[in-house]
Design goal:
Layout: E1 8-10, E2 13-15, E3 20-25, E4 30-36, H1 40-55, H2 58-61, H3 64-80, H4 82-93, H5 97-117, E5 124-126, E6 133-141, E7 144-148, H6 154-167, E8 171-176, H7 182-194, E9 201-205, H8 208-217, E10 221-227, H9 230-241, E11 246-250, E12 256-259, H10 265-277, E13 289-293, H11 294-309, H12 329-344, E14 348-351, E15 368-371, H13 378-381, E16 388-394, H14 397-404, E17 414-416, H15 420-429, E18 436-437, E19 456-457, H16 462-467, E20 470-478
Parallel strand pairs: 7-8, 7-10, 8-9, 10-11, 12-13, 12-17, 13-16, 15-16, 17-18
Antiparallel strand pairs: 1-2, 3-4, 5-6, 6-20, 11-19, 14-15
Helix pairs in contact: 1-8, 3-5, 3-7, 4-5, 4-7, 5-6, 8-9, 10-11
Bound molecules: nicotinamide-adenine-dinucleotide.
Residues 148-153, 157, 175, 177-178, 207-209, 212-213, 216, 227-229, 232, 235-236, 239, 250-253, 284, 383, 385, 411, 456 line the site of nicotinamide-adenine-dinucleotide.
Length: 479
């Protein structure tokens, strides 16, 4: 895998771009590489190639088993190149090397899982009530897929789209975020090496307002799979309206973590700290709202403060580092401003709230805990996408549930208790696509993932995801 010059990968070729932009190393704030900005013409070429590959050519006539083998090979190549991919992701996004290595190891599992499913996704014979008729149902690929990902976890968020899309027989154009696109442009080399026919997968990067807009409003795109922020999602729904492209949306969250007094408090504290401060809080499932039973609040907060202040903040490429910088200056500025607003509005700073000591360069921000008097503070309501935990106390299970659900989001949640019946009641009552009980942030290719409310539409992962990239054709035969 070479990384000397990053190029877009369109119709089976690595292409020079007429326009480029600087990619910034978040640990220094200094540009480290030039990235190709795809133009509208580049997008058109990629979509047209995907359409040709879908209609004619080797991909269109390939058996599901052969498609599946290509996906498994791609998964193997990701694992074989995990070290290099992780290094690039860390360099371009500031996500620490421990986390990028760990995540890329299971990105390979997603391609292998969907590769294995490609020839197990069956149609049906329908026993209708007519003696001289037979009906079969054929699951057919829905068409050209536009996959759009945000900058965080780009390899993972692409795998949950490309895996089921290609297993279903679709072709795809993947747009890497303009922030931190290096790992996906390097991944394109593995797609090429795996031997996918030209046009089956194109990978490009560029800006949302031109390249992203064109991709999601292109008349030949039948399916849009988007992960990102809610305001971009609304724009994308408008983009897709003209062509009525089927769209799934994986959006943000303000995930509650509920800690009852009867929980194993030390293991809960470890999970809460990892739940919010992993990836410097830049994770859609970040457990950013802690709801803790009042009788243990002070003791629990003291544990959290100790653990948060012990986190080793530093160079993201150093394997000893436990928390790196934020990915962009814009994120850093936004977090500074929401924290200031929340403290002015009555929040009590438990720890953090500023740059970590000695970190004058780069986009570093200290692990921050704010105790909030109620749910109205900006740090409680808004997704910050940063290392800021808001804390509220509750007195009863009913109050915990009501606070947990007092948000327009509904992506993930956590419940810590040793009372099994209470855990089940909370799991039933919480409005979120994921409830983790006595654990946090577990994922698997076998398990569906997605949000309620403003956290999105549709599910990724699991068997259902592949159905979402097919449409059924009913074939009626007079016998
Ligand atoms: P973003 O919405 O700003 O950008 C996401 C992608 O959309 C980028 O590739 C961008 O170029 C593209 N885009 C922007 N405008 C566009 C337009 N008009 N048309 C088409 N594409 C356009 O998101 P971000 O700041 O990069 O990422 C953070 C957000 O992503 C957070 O809200 C986070 O919660 C969410 N997220 C969700 C999940 C999930 O699975 N639910 C996972 C990770 C991140």
């Amino acid at each position: 895998m070479s990384t000397a010059a990053f190029k877009n990968y369109i119709d089976g070729q690595f292409v020079e771009s007429t326009e480029t932009f600087d990619s910034i190393d978040p640990s220094t704030g200094v540009p480290w590489a030039q990235m190709p900005a795809a133009t509208v013409a580049d997008v058109d070429r990629a979509v047209e190639a995907a359409h040709r590959a879908l209609r004619s050519g080797p991909w269109a006539s390939m058996t599901a088993t052969a498609r599946g083998k290509l996906l498994v090979r791609l998964g193997d190549l990701v694992v074989a190149n995990a070290g290099r991919l992780a290094e690039l992701e860390t360099r371009d996004t500031g996500k620490i090397i421990r986390e990028t290595r760990a995540q890329i190891a299971y990105v390979g599992d997603y391609y292998r899982y969907y590769g294995g499913l490609a020839d197990k996704h069956e149609g049906a014979f329908v026993p209708i009530d007519k003696a001289d008729m037979e009906v079969t149902i054929r699951p057919e690929p829905i068409g050209v897929v536009a996959a759009i990902v945000p900058w965080n976890s780009q390899l993972f968020l692409s795998a949950v789209k490309l895996g089921p899309a290609l297993a279903a027989g679709c072709t795809a154009v993947l747009k890497a975020s303009e922030d931190g696109p290096a790992p996906l442009l390097a991944f394109a080399e593995l797609v090429h090496e795996a031997g996918f026919p030209a046009g089956t997968i194109s990978i490009l990067t560029g800006f949302g307002h031109d390249c992203g807009h064109r991709l999601t409003s292109h008349p030949l795109v039948a399916r849009v799979a988007f992960t990102g922020g809610p305001s971009t999602a609304r724009q994308i729904v408008i983009n897709t309206a003209e062509n009525l492209a089927y769209t799934t949306l994986e959006l943000g969250g303000k995930s509650p973590v509920v800690v009852f007094a009867d929980a194993d408090l030390d293991s809960a504290a470890n999970a809460v700290v990892a739940g919010i401060f992993a990836a410097t809080g830049q994770s859609c499932v970040a457990g950013s709202r802690l709801l803790v039973e009042r009788s243990v609040k002070d003791e629990f907060l003291a544990r959290l403060k100790r653990k948060a202040e012990a986190i080793a903040i530093g160079d993201p490429q150093d394997p000893a580092t436990e928390m790196g910088p934020l990915a962009t200056l814009r994120q850093h500025e936004r977090i500074e401003s929401i924290v200031a607003e929340s403290l002015a509005g009555g929040g009590r700073l438990v720890t953090g709230g500023a740059r970590p000591q000695g970190k004058t360069n780069g986009f570093y921000y200290a692990p921050t805990i704010i105790e909030a008097p109620d749910q109205t503070l900006a740090c409680v309501r808004e997704e910050l996408f940063g290392p800021v935990l808001s804390v509220l106390a509750f007195d009863s299970e009913a109050e915990a549930l009501s606070l947990a659900n007092d948000t327009p989001f509904g992506l993930a949640s956590g419940v810590f208790t040793t009372n099994l019946a209470k855990a089940h009641r909370m799991a039933r009552g919480i409005h979120a696509g994921v409830v983790w009980i006595n654990t946090y942030r577990a994922v698997s290719p076998l398990v569906p993932f997605g949000g309620y409310g403003q956290s999105g539409l549709g599910r990724e992962g699991g068997l259902d995801a592949i159905r979402d990239y097919t449409r059924s054709k009913s074939v009626w035969i007079r016998t």
